[in-house]
Amino acid sequence: xxxxxxxxxxxxxxxxxKITRSEDLFVKEIPEGKGYALADxxxxxxxxxxxxVKKNYLPMVxxxxxxxxxxxDRLKTKLVETTASRILSRCIxxxxxxxxxxxx
Length: 104
What we know:
The protein is α+β, with helices and mostly antiparallel strands.
């Protein structure tokens, strides 16, 4: 599990990541909430999408293709913690780029 904080304008936003190796485990651990759920194509199936919607999320699937196009699709890491922090860094950088584009 990885925790991080992102500063967006004047707001500090906590971010929590957990790497799972199973779709069933992912679906079971979806907390109640609201907002967007970002996922890659592996979660593009009715079972997962229905569970996300039931828990008040708006699924945005296949967004990680944009990350692969931007940064490449290989992470040369062995430790799960290092992999998670690199993925988080890529998400933050790409999201910041989109945010800056929209705010101009």
